[in-house]
Specification:
The complex is a heterodimer of chains A (126) and B (404).
Chain A (H helix, E strand, L loop, with lengths): L4 H8 L14 E8 L4 E9 L5 E9 L2 H14 L4 H5 L3 H8 L6 H22 L1
Antiparallel strand pairs in A: 1-2, 2-3
Helix pairs in contact in A: 1-2, 2-5, 4-5
Chain B lengths: L4 E2 L10 H7 L18 H21 L6 E4 L2 H15 L6 E5 L4 H12 L3 E5 L9 H7 L4 E5 L13 H10 L3 E5 L18 E5 L10 E5 L27 H36 L5 E3 L10 E6 L4 H7 L3 E2 L1 E2 L12 H5 L4 H5 L1 E5 L6 H20 L2 H7 L13
Parallel strand pairs in B: 1-11, 3-4, 3-5, 5-6, 6-7
Antiparallel strand pairs in B: 2-8, 7-8, 9-10, 10-13, 12-13
Helix pairs in contact in B: 1-7, 2-7, 3-4, 7-11
The chains are: A alpha+beta (126), B alpha/beta (404).
Chain lengths: 126, 404
Amino acid sequence: MAYGKKVMDHYENPRNVGVLDKDAPNVGTGMVGAPACGDVMRLQIQINDEGVIEEAKFKTYGCGSAIASSSLLTEWVKGKTLDEAAQIKNTEIVEELELPPVKIHCSVLAEDAIKAAINDLKSKAS
Amino acid sequence: MLTPTYMDYSSTTPVDQRVAKKMAKYLTMEGDFGNPASRSHFYGWQAEKAVDEARTQVADLVGADPREIVWTSGATESNNLAIKGIAHFYEKRGKHIITLKTEHKAVLDTCRQLEREGFEVTYLDPLPNGLLDMDVFKKTIREDTILASIMHVNNEIGVIQDLQAIGDICRENKVFFHVDAAQSVGKLEINLESLPVDLMSFSAHKIYGPKGMGALYVSRKPRVRLEAQMHGGGHERGMRSGTLATHQIVGIGEAFAIAKAEMKDEGVRVQKLRDRLLAGFSDMEEVVVNGDLDQRISGNLNISFNYVEGESLMMAISDVAVSSGSACTSSSLEPSYVLRALGLTDELAHSSIRFSVGRYTTEKDVDDAITLVREKVQKLRDLSPLWDMFKDGVDLSSVEWAAH
């Protein structure tokens, strides 16, 4: 399967790979997918006192498109508020990375991951 | 452009130069282009002579009589002709067929078709090492079993089945025995004079011959009869009609003759390369060889790098052309059915890579592949949340995953 340039770029130079302290009160963690399905994403966000995402990290087990989708997402969410970040749709990822239909589930997973991370943060706050 | 190193010889092989050169002599006006079925003139006779010679070359490699060789378009057609041909000819005797879950799709899908026609098929689970469980096989044979189809060497994991033992059981129970030998012919000794096998499928392109060419061995003693699947001019003793493709036939003949002459030395050389490749990975953590390592064809290494997804690894090592059992390489999003039949967890199946080396692989190719794979596996593991969890001592099977 031939990949688009943008997928290859994110895949070869993934942005924001890493881990944040999942127990910190200002860090939200979202882990979605399953090893049996061939992809697992862990996305973490850290907010500042104004509620703006100041840091985002990911690690992904999966195909090139899954890695690229999560890498792209960490770039996009930085500087956004939680509400803004929650607005990101998987279709925007598909468009940006020019994912073929068979890889759309990778973008869905990325959207699920950011939503899960936001929920984790919100549950910590309440 | 630098082309990637080819390590996918189980998929297909390049045509040997010697084979290509000979094939080219059977195409043009200056060559022997005639129809081998033309009995009335020189052109036909020349072509017929070439076909006869090739038939002898193919028969010689496997210890058969040339009259037991039927030309086909490849192993897929051979498998179809053997299985459907037996089923349709002998259906009054019984309608039960036995095969293995790890067979090639050309066998499994043919069996599925026969099920739609009212036959009953038992798909046996292999042992975890990929081999047939003889006791289970014996117990599965019934009064109405007419055919067992078990491959010689598996295309994904390279394991070798014991044809003598399986064939003996078939003979005792008067069950026809078909063997898909696409992956083994020209690599392992096959002597059909003594082997209790009734039908055997061959392919040319897995052994440095042309694509689109194969053969089916149909035993004469004991006599096996088939119902034709392709009707027409009654070629190949009525079993497979269609004008013979002289250049393709010459190609399979020459490829098989070269294999007969060079098989022993080549086997030793290829196994050394495969073992060198395996040795290059053996000190890495969480690496699993899939399928039995001893009962295995010399060129195959199917290996899982746990916690790294196969397709992303293939992408990372794109300088080496290999195959993966990862779901992402198929359109179905299911990982390899062969690896799953061995009882592998889905994640190990997703993490598998098949390296297959062959005639033109060099030590340098192997060494370069080792360096590249080691580097990229490390990179992808650094990126893998599963690797983190493994390192933290988390049991992944105890985690509740949000499956999608």
